[in-house]
User: Fold these one by one.
Assistant:
Number 1:
Amino acid sequence: MSDQIMIFDTTLRDGEQAPGCQLNTVEKIEIARQLEILGVDVIEAGFPISSPGDFQSVVEVSKAVSVPVICALTRAVPGDIDAAVEALKFAKRKRIHTGIGASDIHIQHKFNSTREDVLARGVAAVKYARKFVEEVEFYAEDAGRADNAYLAQMIEAVIAAGASYVNIPDTTGYCTPDEFGAKIRYLKEHVNNIDQAIISVHCHNDLGMATANTIAAIQNGARQVQVTINGIGERAGNTSLEEIAMILKTRQDLAAHTNLDTTKIYPTSRLVSRLMRMPVQANKAIVGRNAFAHSSGIHQNGLLKNRLTYEIMQPSDIGIKDNSLDLSARSGRSALKHHLDRLGYSPEPTELDAVYQEFLVLADRKKQIADDDLRQLMGDHAAAGGIEIVAVDVHSGTSIAPKATVKLAVGGTEHQATAAGNGPVDAAFRAVNEIIKQPVVLEEYLVQAITHGTDDTGKVHVQLAHNGHLYYGFGADTDIIVASVKAYIDALSKLT
Ligand code: KIV
Ligand code: ZN
């Protein structure tokens, strides 16, 4: 028997607290609609008392979404609860998430109060919220560092006051998985009315243990998890939705499942990353761009024989259409043959041997080998139509409008275009677009310094969307604009 784990998504509340990730109301609605398609059970849409913008977002998300429960956060304060009630008035299904600190550190230093007083304030908040809504969830802030006996007393009192969900946050990401699992077990065993409520957990990732702690909690009786897309959130973030979803799907022996449509994970991750302007780290579990990129020859060879050798889940499970066997200097003949077959060439073994030697020479020079490179290796120069940068000139600064002139050789013929933009990179990309004329959307743009210093080489990664597929490009140069154009062209040259 497998138990259902409810997914409480807090991307729009805790996630949005991450520095630089603020969203406007229109963007929040877009994400909320996508979360509904993904199949989350609850959307925490904001903290209405905190700002007029947050209040309005809860109102608009409530109107835009019908299946998931819409939840609003409050402190254990009547004014916060009044604002939440008002903001939730259009929600078809609603919940108030109220609470107060439960650790002695919070009780003494944040509230300058006593355990008894704080417990009474929590109970009063739940009773007050219950006057307006059926579903009240209580959070015991910093439960991770709270004394278990006091926590149990508090949880029992708020359930008696009408809370049907009790949320146990590891607010500071302090607990270890054993400890957090034992805390949930302790509550199951010591809170007399625990069967009248669902235990929820909310873990932070300060020590990199948010996902492990959430799984430990599930194994000990939690039946709702608070998570965010891409693990975005306050400081080091929250438990990431995609990790929990795929752990439960991949490890069916845990006997727990979610109602998510996991094939919507990747598009949701991309949307959140784009709207929050927060790139996903390349090696991020599940949704990082390397998460399914098998690079070493031995792995690629095994994978082509049987995917189970190196793949515990399929890229298609999370909505990635095609897993890329990256072609690099470490790739073997089998990976090269796989790609040549895909492009319609079926080289005989001797021809493959010869092409493989040329491929290795090229791969030593080029970090990633694109389809056009393979076509060229197969002698198909006409089809390849390679793009080369001839010149890039930009004008920008505080007193002139950014403008770029780019000259490219496409399939051996030179073309030049000049464009204006809101910055030099934008102008340069627009100039490239005028020459290449492919309908692409820039999904991600990431600049990194390779080492240190102002004379350093800059590395640029871009991700372009074209006809439902994503194409990655990389460029490096001491001039960051040139590196950007190189990366853009690299991605464009992969369009098939
Ligand atoms: O981290 C935390 O404790 C929170 C609560 C408001 C649930 O975000
Ligand atoms: Zn939090």
Note: The pocket of zinc ion (ligand 2) is lined by residues 14, 169, 171, 202, 204, 234 (CB under 6 Å).
Number 2:
Amino acid sequence: MVHFVGAGPGAPDLITLRGAKLLEEADVIIYAGSLVNPALLDRAKEGCRIRNSAQMTLEEVVEEIVAAEKEGKTTVRLHTGDPSIYGAIREQIDQLEARGIPYDVTPGVSSFCGAAAALGAEYTLPEVSQTVIISRMAGRTPVPAKESIPALASHGATMVLFLSTGLLEGLQAQLMEGGYQADSPAAIVYKATWPDEKVFRCTVGTLAKTAADHQITKTALILVGGFLGDTYERSKLYDPTFTTEFRKGVE
Ligand code: SAH
């Protein structure tokens, strides 16, 4: 059996209770060493075989799992944040299905949630944006043309950009091409929830400079949108005049 587990964004106590239990029971742990906090591996039981997937190909990961299965062992495949976001789990799942190896997935706290927490921010402010666009700049991994940054930026919705910290000159130009202004609010959150977390509030026009000034080149999220600004409407849910299933509003 293989358990895909979301490790959370960094802080070792942000893994789920279920994920922690699976880690403690695993005979084999294959972890994404580029981003998973190694402190999580302290949970491994004695004799657990631990492999860092940062130095492995998909084929090698599958080989490791197949070997564990042959010995009747349980594998945890530990991914950073939540495995569903840029986790490359689909290609692993397809390999397991082809071999009849059972698996399940335990979600994790994605870094985009960790970044909002670091900012004390709400992505979905009434009358500002009710949509969160999660995307990335095209780099060595291409992005479908319909999902270009200018096309996505044209919605004016909240944007969370992964895997783009090395491409900020291009990113800010493309955000502006899509309709953001140079003074539209933006932020860079480096290593959200890690002990060395850093939060920089800036504008779309100063994203590249802000990162350069603070030597931020990786492990960061770029956040863009009016949710980082000062104006919004209060929620209907907690409005005294608004009636809900649970509370009668005053006239
Ligand atoms: N599955 C992960 C994302 C993996 S892609 C998740 O749900 O968070 C790797 C990218 O995620 C990094 O390049 C960076 O953009 C972002 N990232 C991962 N952990 C981060 C953290 N703690 N703080 C800021 N960005 C992070």
Note: Residues 58-70 form the longest helix (13 residues).
